[in-house]
Amino acid sequence: MPHSSSDTPPPPSPGSGPETGFDALVAEAEAAPVDGWDFSWFEGRATEERPSWGYQRLLAGRLADPAVSAALDLQTGGGEVLAGAGPYPPAMAATESWPPNLARATRLLQPRGVVVVAGPEEPPLPFADGAFDLVTSRHPATVWWPEIARVLAPGGTYFAQHVGPETVFELSEFFLGPLGGEVRRLRHPEAERAQAEEAGLEMTDQRTERLRMEFHDIGAVVHFLRKVVWTVPGFTVEAYRDKLRELHGRITAEGPFVAHSTRTLVEARRPA
């Protein structure tokens, strides 16, 4: 989503004209494509703070390391993050399973010399043991620690930005009601550290930040829920029309709906 900034002028108030009524906003969001991880559609309609560490910049540094001769980007989405982080090591591969993202990633990355591999994200990955000096991922849906450890060469590194615990729970709970403790513990950094260590990896860096998000109109909410499908599993406009209309009224009366995302920077090493 677009970066938040105090220098950015506020977006127009929802409901300020007939074109911004509930039905028009929802119809526009339903018609917008959701492939890839390009969030430019949200410009002027929603904002999200970015983590302080700058994942793409750090990723570029890892890929440029002369000691890295082969790297793998897991669950690359539409390839936008990896495309902006080159140049790459002599061997560079990426995986993606969702067909719309796969087509987008192939168009974007193949001309840059990246081999884009289609297939399920769950084990086993179609790579040999110890094939990569560096494995990376930004916002993987599931982290298969034993498989990451398997494809890493001795001394190799896993470098990633994960979605952290309780991400956008304000929005999830608006639609789904209170979420239990077990759900809240998912993706907790301590649990991820234990899983990495159980797989034989050594966690060398782990940082978590909680970041403010604002949704300025109901169209932004609909588009987000269609794009980030795990926020409200099984979301459709028809199934949640009454709740959407309620939230539209709330945003119109009170201003942006505020939620918070959580991001964790992860670096883990396979012992040499």
Average predicted local confidence, pLDDT:
92
Please summarize the sheet with the most strands: 8 strands, mixed
**Termini distance?**
38 Å
Q: What is the number of helical segments per DSSP (H or I, 4+ residues)?
A: 10
Secondary structure: helix percent? 25-40%
Instruction: Assess the beta-strand content as a share of residues.
Output: 15-25%
| Assembly context of the chains | single chain
Q: N-to-C SSE series?
A: HEHEHEHEEHEHHHEHHE
Overall 3D shape: globular
Protein name: Class I SAM-dependent methyltransferase
Keywords: Methyltransferase, Transferase
InterPro entries: 23S_rRNA_MeTrnsfrase_RlmA, Methyltransf_11, SAM-dependent_MTases_sf
Domain Methyltransferase type: 72-159
Helix-strand layout with pairing:
Blueprint: H1 22-31, E1 46-48, H2 55-63, E2 70-73, H3 80-83, E3 91-96, H4 99-109, E4 115-118, E5 132-138, H5 145-151, E6 152-163, H6 169-176, H7 181-185, H8 189-198, E7 202-215, H9 218-227, H10 241-254, E8 257-269
Helix pairs in contact: 1-9
Region (Disordered): 1-23
Pfam families: Methyltransf_11 (PF08241)
GO molecular function, one term: methyltransferase activity
Brief overview:
Residues 72-159 form the Methyltransferase type domain. InterPro entries: 23S_rRNA_MeTrnsfrase_RlmA (IPR052939), Methyltransf_11 (IPR013216), SAM-dependent_MTases_sf (IPR029063). This protein has 272 residues and is an alpha/beta fold.
